[in-house]
DNA sequence: CAAATACCTTGCGCTATGGCAAGCGTTTAG
DNA sequence: CTAAACGCTTGCCATAGCGCAAGGTATTTG
């Protein structure tokens, strides 16, 4: 499937498009290839774009005062990704967004995106869905990590995202789970 | 300050009210007193209301499959509180909402609230603020708990919510922090 | 292709936190 | 007002997970 069809298919799963919407939408989304480890956003920058991932994966993370990377989210193909907090507020981001693999994506500026949100009902629905999902996802993460052992957290991750261990460096999985790479390595040995 | 003024003051801090808005708003919010430990929502029920707390406090929590209570949020005076996930989706809640203290609040039905969101700009702003805050709060919680020790989590809580230890049972604080009451008790002894 | 780099694993000892039991103080309810 | 219930503390022991160091493997880069 070509990139444009992939995006349109995603949108149409949420809401049908009216005559002419397709062109209006595709006009604003810019295709972009990013290399492995390339940054799309760095701490301190204002996030003024939204991304739709076609192929590959990104990670969103912050760096703690002690210099430790804390991963908040892995974004794979057919997901929108951005730093919502910075996007909404217009304030500088606390996060980095970085490609984990060689990645292909569509990028749209904040103003173009918000324009489409207002003018095209299907995109309005996409945005609402993003906000709701973002909230629900973070709630789930809180509830599933609360007082859980490393093994329980790992099992939870593997359940809703099987195969992730083979795709993403263990180091990053550990950071996402809030455990050390050592502990993760030992757990994997017992699976 | 009387309850009506308290609510109106809260709203006006976000956005000014137009002529006649006050009456329209107050008409829809019902004053309600709840006893300590009284439930406002139970797991399995659909959350079709929004609450504004005038006095007292609520807790939102879920019960894990192992029967453990996991507290997500404490809501104090001058805060809106609801189960956003259930409210938005219309699906049954995974949470309980319970009064921690004797509490006075305003309750508004989902439909009345969404009506005001559409008809009164200031309320629209209130809702947007709720959504953004909800998301930002949960992000903060994730980042501040990730790989942190019990003491670090406690210090973080005390910083943004000093005095909470004197007001809320330790048991609940422990549940919120994801540690055992025993550990919390020991930490308090060292503060 | 080779050297350098990054990543993963594993062993060892240590510490923080959990689990449990007992005792105390305070709140609740008849 | 009293008994029961509940919540908090504290001691003791068990253990999960961390920190560090060393060695092996894979990946990157020139």
Task: Describe the SSE topology.
The structure is a homodimer of 191-residue chains.
Chain A: H1 3-14, H2 21-28, E1 30-34, E2 39-41, E3 49-55, E4 57-63, E5 69-76, E6 80-81, H3 84-89, E7 95-99, E8 103-109, H4 110-119, H5 121-145, H6 150-160, H7 164-167, H8 170-177, H9 181-190
Antiparallel strand pairs in A: 1-8, 2-7, 3-6, 3-8, 4-5, 4-7
Helix pairs in contact in A: 4-5, 8-9
The structure holds a DNA duplex (30 and 30 nucleotides).
Structure description:
Two copies of one chain form a homodimer. The first copy, chain A, has 191 residues and is an alpha+beta fold. Chain A has helices at 3-14, 21-28, 84-89, 110-119, 121-145, 150-160, 164-167, 170-177, 181-190; strands spanning 30-34, 39-41, 49-55, 57-63, 69-76, 80-81, 95-99, 103-109. Chain A has two domains: 3-134, Jelly Rolls, CATH 2.60.120.10; 147-191. In chain A, a hairpin with a 5-residue loop joins strand 4 and strand 5. In chain A, helix 4 packs across helix 5 (121-145) and helix 8 (170-177) packs across helix 9 (181-190). The termini of chain A are far apart. Chain A binds chain B through residues 62, 64, 68, 70, 72, 84-85, 88-89, 94, 131-132, 134-136, 138-139, 141-143, 145-147, 178-179, and chain B through 62, 64, 68, 70, 72, 84-85, 88-89, 94, 131-132, 134-136, 138-139, 141-143, 145-147, 178-179.
Short note summarizing the structure:
By secondary structure, chain A is an alpha+beta fold.
């Amino acid at each position: 499937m070509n990139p444009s069809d992939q995006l349109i298919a995603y949108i149409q799963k949420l809401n049908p498009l009216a005559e002419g919407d397709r062109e209006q939408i595709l006009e604003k989304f810019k295709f972009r290839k990013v290399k492995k480890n390339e940054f799309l956003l760095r701490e301190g920058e204002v996030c003024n774009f939204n991304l739709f991932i076609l192929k590959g994966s990104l990670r969103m993370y912050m760096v703690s005062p002690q210099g430790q990377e804390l991963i908040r989210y892995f974004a794979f193909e057919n997901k929108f990704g951005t730093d919502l907090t910075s996007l909404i507020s217009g304030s500088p981001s606390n996060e980095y967004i970085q490609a984990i693999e060689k990645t292909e994506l569509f990028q749209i500026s904040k103003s173009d995106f918000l324009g489409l949100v207002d003018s095209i009902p299907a995109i309005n629905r996409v945005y609402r869905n993003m906000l709701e999902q973002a909230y629900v996802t973070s709630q789930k993460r809180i509830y599933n990590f609360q007082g859980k052992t490393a093994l329980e957290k790992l099992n939870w991750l593997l359940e809703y995202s099987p195969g992730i261990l083979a795709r993403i460096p263990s180091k990053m999985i550990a950071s996402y789970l809030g455990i050390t790479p050592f502990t993760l390595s030992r757990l994997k040995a017992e699976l």
